[in-house]
Write the structure tokens for this entry.
Amino acid sequence: MTDHPELIAQLTRLGLTTYEAKAYLALTLRDSYTAAQVSRQAGLPRQRIYDVLGSLVEKGLASARPGEVVKYAAIPPQLAVARLIETHRLGLQDLERDALEMVASMTPAYEAGRSQTDPLEYIEVLRDERAINERFAQLQANVKREILVFTKPPYATPPQENVEGLLVSREHTARAMYELSAFDDPDFIRGVQRFLEAGEDARFVPVLPLKLVIIDETIVMFGMQDPVEGSSDLTIVVVEHPSLAKTLKLAFEATWATGLTFQQASDAIAARALRSA
């Protein structure tokens, strides 16, 4: 039986060392053994056998019989396995108790930490064009009710390329403001018309103060052009702050009230062209 690796593996999973498992299996083969006999039967080193047998006795899996030569006997397997399982059960109970005490100790600090936030963690600063496009696409895809936009050059994603935005315009309230210079680019204007057909409402003004996106009165995304004249560097800031979003929405509404509809803007551009002809 001592050469049964599966039994040895099962006993080690229950908490015995490999030497202890081999010694116990050897003890089950006879009523009792001397230490030397166990060493030979189990194939264990003589210099280790007394420590191994002493450990089995301490764990209650074997008994020592005094005499001229001490002999060792295994307790019945069903009792041995039950004791090993009980040891695990008691260990698990201790572990569970310690874990509950640990949780109780850590929870107050954790709860207190929830209120300690970085005052600027709701602000993102983006300068890389790819990162800007990816963040805008992410925000646009997560619109739940409303998206308001000031669209002005330089365009990260012009209307004719913003396929995802069309879906947002169909499913949510979408209002966009453009500069009248948009009519200088036929492709751009065709893109705007597609958005209008999808459900977007649009207004046109001579000049917009900045690039701006307001989503669900919660998140704003705006661009800050480098103040150095002639510079094309653009920094985009994303802020998740309802108070700021609602304040900027007031500015959006004020600008919206001054804007022209697509038809009005188109007529004004045509009239201007006739006057200059």
Observations:
- The mean pLDDT is 88.
